[in-house]
Structures are given as C-alpha cells and as structure tokens.
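Structure (tokenized):
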C-alpha cells in the first residue's frame, strides 16, 4: 500500500512539475517576444533620430519669364546626423490654370543625377535645368495672371540607414511679385 501511495504522490509531483514548466516556458517566450519588439523599436528610433534629412529651397524667389530652358538654383542642406552618399533630383515645371492633382505626376521631368557626399550641416547649391521650355503663349498667360507656374520635384538620397525621398513644391502665382507659395497638396512636399 505504501508503494502505491508513493507512486501516486510521485505521479502527482511529476504532473505538477510539467504544468509549472509549461507556464514558465510560455512566460519566457512572451518575454523573448517583448525583448525582440523592444529591440526593433530601438533600432527604428535610432534610425529615425540619426538619419539624414534634406532641406530644399530655391535660390531665387521667382522664375524668369522668358523663352528657352530654365535653370533654377536650389540650396540643399543636410539637416540630419548622417552623411548623404548620393542624390538624384527629379524636377517638373508646370504651367496650369487650376489646381494640380493631389498626387504629383513627375512627367515630363528633368532628372539630374548628382553624386557627391553631403555631411551633416553642409549646404550646397545645385543648378537644375528644367525642361520643357516655356512657350510665348504660356509666358503671355503667366504675365496676364491667367496661369500659374509650379515647380515641384523630389530628391532621392542614400545614407547609412537606407534610401529616402524628400519632395518639394513651389507655386509662382503672381508674375509681378518675386514671392512664391509652397504647394498646398501634402503629397508634393512630404518626406520619408
């Protein structure tokens, strides 16, 4: 009888140990998952706070209303914490009477591949020749205030953390003024 009782107690202890181990294992797996998620969040946070950020601004505040190709100078400044390795600029010049579509259409466009390094805090001036040229009719309509001139584009660049896109957009609506407005549609000026 004693042997039978000992066997029952031992079986009960073994069952209890297996159950405790399953609970402990489930807790360890959950803690491991939480640790993995925290490491991923820390990595994303490190990337977000240490990556490169580009600021793009036109040098002149108005586009000369003349026939022929347009060359605009842009200042590009690295406002981030890592070096920019490569820059590629896409620019569009658009004469229009109404609002532009909510999503930018980058055609027809001018692509300006620029390969250089831009360290944090550094600024450079990049001349961008924009096609197509303005026609005599477009220039007349712009001077009469019947059309607007928009210049928009995107700058794709690489840094230590990956590839990003910074978008820019300016609208010249008053030909008598050298002032410009930022594009109202968010997708024209959003950045990654």
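Design, position by position:
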């Amino acid at each position: 009888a004693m042997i039978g009782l000992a066997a029952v107690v031992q079986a009960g202890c073994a069952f209890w140990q297996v159950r405790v181990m399953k609970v402990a294992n489930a807790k360890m797996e959950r803690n491991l998952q939480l640790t993995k998620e925290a490491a991923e969040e820390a990595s994303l946070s490190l990337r977000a706070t240490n990556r490169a950020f580009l600021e793009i601004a036109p040098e002149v505040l108005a586009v000369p209303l003349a026939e022929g190709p347009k060359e605009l100078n842009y200042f590009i400044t690295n406002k981030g914490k890592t070096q920019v390795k490569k820059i590629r600029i896409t620019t569009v010049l658009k004469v229009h009477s109404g609002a532009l579509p909510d999503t930018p259409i980058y055609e027809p466009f001018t692509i300006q591949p620029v390969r250089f390094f831009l360290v944090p805090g550094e600024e450079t001036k990049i001349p961008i020749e924009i096609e197509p040229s303005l026609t005599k009719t477009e220039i007349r309509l712009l001077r009469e205030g019947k059309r607007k001139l928009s210049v928009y584009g995107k700058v794709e660049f690489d840094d230590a953390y990956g590839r990003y896109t910074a978008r820019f957009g300016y609208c010249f609506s008053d030909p008598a003024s050298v002032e410009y407005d930022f594009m109202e549609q968010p997708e024209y000026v959003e950045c990654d």
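Reviewer-requested clarification: The chain is about 30% helix and 35% strand. Strands lie at 54-58, 68-78, 86-96, 110-114, 123-134, 148-159, 162-172, 181-182.
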